[in-house]
Amino acid sequence: AQKVTQAQTEISVVEKEDVTLDCVYETRDTTYYLFWYKQPPSGELVFLIRRNSFDEQNEISGRYSWNFQKSTSSFNFTITASQVVDSAVYFCALSLLRGAGNMLTFGGGTRLMVKP
Amino acid sequence: GAVVSQHPSRVICKSGTSVKIECRSLDFQATTMFWYRQFPKQSLMLMATSNEGSKATYEQGVEKDKFLINHASLTLSTLTVTSAHPEDSSFYICSARDPQQGTTPYNSPLHFGNGTRLTVT
Hints:
The complex is a heterodimer of chains A (116) and B (121).
Chain A: E1 3-5, E2 10-14, E3 19-21, E4 24-26, E5 32-39, E6 46-52, E7 59-61, E8 64-69, E9 74-79, E10 88-96, E11 104-106, E12 110-115
Parallel strand pairs in A: 2-12
Antiparallel strand pairs in A: 1-4, 3-9, 5-6, 5-10, 7-8, 8-9, 10-11, 10-12
Chain B: E1 4-7, E2 10-13, E3 19-25, E4 32-38, E5 44-51, E6 57-58, E7 67-73, E8 76-81, E9 90-97, E10 110-112, E11 116-120
Parallel strand pairs in B: 2-11
Antiparallel strand pairs in B: 1-3, 3-8, 4-5, 4-9, 5-6, 7-8, 9-10, 9-11
């Protein structure tokens, strides 16, 4: 069975610090997709990134960057120069190629608190 | 971009009553929608997959008779919590995939509604 682990339940940083959110997944499938979502205090889930298992290129989008390492089954997310608006719960999720296609298995989430 | 609208955002009801939550895809058609439940400070757990024109598929441990799902059109799915009890108090979130995004059903991101916070007193 698939599983997503976000070992850090809460992280607190001071504004402008860099912070990395860890995500480790488990699956026997060779093809799969990984996602990161952000859930601010208002509750809605915001899509940040998707990555397929064949694409191990790291990606950078502004202050956000993602490091996908298939060898260690990790898909870590780094925020550079964090801001107070980055405070939210971040979820890593795994999607397998079966069933309805979009059943996401979510990690437990990491609550990030950025203090001014 | 794709938008999923969920209504109501908050509802407080008395124990024993039923509550209906609507999930609409506003600018795309969704043959499949997903209902998740989130307890405070916990992750999202898939409750059921709503299929347009057919029965919903429920995850193990989710009571079909308690959480009634209807997907009557390509843009609307409803979740009815029947005879609600305090333990049903939770954050319910629906999601759907825009079929025009991504190259397969598996790599397109799910778009989520803003969620419904249900409190049963």
